[in-house]
């Protein structure tokens, strides 16, 4: 009988140094005794940030600084390799060849003083390309045969550099063709998270934190029994533990709750990872790599019965853009034109609200997109602004979105008043409330300075029942 297959993904903190890589290898070795295993590796903690910092330095012409960052990365990975070799007695060495390509890419950016999204993705890809071979070597040295696999040979995406979407029809057969023979030979493939390639063969990335999505995509393609996401907290908590230290572990979370929580800022899982899991009906299990015995969180079709709000999340770094004007009532298709404009720019509208009086439209977009969104909307509505039908396009930042999430909110009376009561008692002013949001979430915008207070007040109110 074929053994069940599981995908195990390790985040950056869980691969922070040689000791942690060895711990990840032990967890993989233990899993592979009872199931077939495919591993996914993130970059070592902080490495992607270092790479993007080096890209930024190169763009500004600071090539020497960028090259120093490359040397620091070489040193960090070489040290980890030699410590793994010492601990296991195995033949583990660091292959620095990819770093020559990295230096060439950075030199090109410095020369042109121009950094395209395409080259940014190439530069960002080196973290996973360096970490996956180390994890594979550690696993082999501990006695479980393993092989590093570059995900660019498996996953084909669109060309949206920086946040590409996988084309499953093209990718799934490749994943099966390449990984199943290894698995059948008893070799654990250790796949680079986060990175993929475009149809033209250029390196793409799935967005920051995208290794979770790599794991879910592989799990779906391989018909895995589960996808385990190993991280540095016990699982999905009722709030970000850095804001609410006494946040509770949620042992069961529904796909829908997970989608809402991660869309609205719960960093523990990359939002797009939920989609392949839902499509294939595969549970996502979040576990603590530093406390593997703890139960963790299982995300599946069935959450937990119960009433009310289960979690509070927040997204910082937003901008509130509003269109006001008494004449808006008479203008057809305003919302469609607003969405058409943002779609043309490729700006994602995280939240949208239209007052029933039709005198105001508000949208929340990432702060980084503030200027070009305002300019494009001013252009789109230039005639209405001239005639006075629209007063103007106003923008405010920094703004945060706060969300209360729970399947049991549906059909529970009085949730909204409880939520806004708690926020008001904390002295926080609510700027906009989302309209037409799903029934298992209430989301609203506050000033960034009020984000933490709003999350804490809401969490305290929901804990009190
Ligand atoms: P990894 O490197 O393992 O991918 P991440 O930093 O991406 O780890 O995600 C884990 C972190 O997510 C935790 O350390 C925690 O601080 C943060 N986090 C934010 N919101 C939540 C939440 N609701 N539940 C659990 N963790 C959360
Ligand atoms: N290394 C990438 C990042 O830091 C992807 C990941 O860790 O999931 O965003
Ligand atoms: Mg992560």
Structure, explained:
The chain is an alpha/beta fold and 465 residues long. It folds into two domains: 5-232, 3-Layer(aba) Sandwich (Carbamate kinase), CATH 3.40.1160.10; 311-463, VC0802-like. It contains 15 helices and 16 strands. It has helices spanning 18-32, 47-59, 63-88, 97-112, 117-124, 126-141, 168-184, 211-222, 255-263, 274-280, 334-345, 370-380, 382-387, 415-425, 451-463, and strands spanning 5-10, 36-41, 146-149, 188-192, 195-197, 203-205, 226-231, 252-254, 284-288, 297-300, 311-324, 351-354, 360-366, 392-405, 432-433, 441-447. The chain has an eight-stranded mixed β-sheet with strand order 3-4-2-1-7-9-10-8, sandwiched between helices. The protein has a six-stranded antiparallel β-sheet with strand order 12-13-11-14-16-15. A two-stranded antiparallel sheet has the order 5-6. β5 (195-197) and β6 (203-205) form a beta hairpin. The model has no long low-confidence stretch (mean pLDDT 94).
Overall, the morphology is globular
Would you give the CATH topology of the largest domain? Carbamate kinase
CATH class of the largest domain: Alpha Beta
Oligomer: single chain
> Beta fraction of the residues?
15-25%
Bound molecules: adenosine-5'-diphosphate, aspartic acid, magnesium ion
Major sheet details: 8 strands, mixed
Give the neighbour order of strands across the main sheet. 3-4-2-1-7-9-10-8
Query: What are the low-pLDDT stretches, counting only 5+ consecutive residues below 50?
Result: none
As a percent range, the share of helical residues equals 40-55%
- Beta-strand segment tally: 16
Average pLDDT works out at 94
Q: Rg to the nearest angstrom?
A: 24 Å
SS class: alpha/beta
Number of helices: 15
What's the CATH architecture of the largest domain?
3-Layer(aba) Sandwich
Compute the separation of the termini in Å: 48 Å
């Amino acid at each position: 009988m074929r053994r069940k297959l599981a995908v195990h993904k390790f985040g950056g903190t869980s691969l922070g140094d040689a000791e942690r890589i060895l711990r990840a290898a032990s967890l993989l070795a233990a899993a592979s005794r009872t199931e077939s295993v495919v591993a996914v590796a993130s970059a070592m903690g902080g490495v992607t940030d270092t790479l993007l910092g080096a890209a930024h330095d190169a763009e500004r012409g600071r090539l020497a600084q960028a090259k120093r960052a490359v040397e620091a990365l070489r040193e960090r990975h070489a040290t980890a390799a030699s410590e793994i070799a010492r601990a296991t007695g195995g033949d583990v060495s660091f292959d620095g060849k990819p770093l020559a390509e990295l230096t060439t890419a950075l030199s090109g950016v410095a020369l042109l003083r121009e950094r395209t999204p395409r080259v940014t993705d190439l530069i960002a890809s080196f973290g996973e390309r360096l970490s996956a071979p180390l994890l594979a070597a550690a696993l082999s040295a501990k006695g479980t045969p393993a092989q590093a696999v570059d995900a660019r040979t498996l996953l084909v995406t669109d060309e949206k550099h920086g946040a590409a979407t996988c084309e499953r029809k093209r990718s799934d057969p490749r994943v099966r063709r390449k990984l199943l023979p290894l698995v059948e030979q008893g070799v654990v493939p250790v796949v680079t998270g986060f990175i993929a390639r475009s149809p033209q063969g250029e390196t793409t990335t799935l967005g920051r934190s995208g290794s979770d999505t790599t794991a879910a995509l592989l799990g779906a393609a391989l018909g895995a029994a589960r996808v385990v996401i190993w991280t540095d907290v016990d699982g999905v908590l009722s709030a970000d533990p850095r804001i609410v230290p006494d946040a509770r572990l949620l042992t069961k979370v529904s796909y829908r709750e997970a989608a809402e929580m991660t869309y609205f800022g719960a960093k523990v899982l990359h939002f797009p990872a939920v989609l392949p899991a839902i499509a294939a009906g595969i549970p996502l299990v979040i576990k603590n790599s530093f406390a593997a015995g703890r139960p963790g969180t299982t995300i599946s079709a069935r959450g937990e019965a119960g009433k009310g709000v289960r979690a509070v999340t927040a997204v910082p770094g937003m901008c509130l853009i509003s269109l006001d004007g008494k004449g808006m009532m008479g203008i057809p298709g305003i919302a469609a034109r607003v969405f058409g404009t943002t779609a043309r720019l490729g700006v994602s509208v995280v939240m949208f609200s239209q007052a029933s009086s039709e005198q105001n439209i508000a949208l929340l977009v990432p702060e980084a997109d503030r200027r070009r969104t305002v300019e494009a909307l001013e252009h789109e509505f230039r005639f209405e602004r001239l005639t006075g039908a629209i007063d103007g396009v106003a923008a405010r930042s920094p703004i945060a979105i706060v969300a209360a999430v729970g399947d049991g909110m549906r059909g529970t009376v009085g949730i909204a008043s409880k939520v806004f009561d708690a926020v008001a008692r904390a002295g926080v002013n609510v700027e906009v409330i989302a309209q037409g949001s799903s029934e298992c979430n209430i989301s609203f915008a506050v000033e960034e300075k009020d984000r933490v207070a709003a999350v804490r007040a809401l969490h305290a109110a929901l804990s009190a029942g």
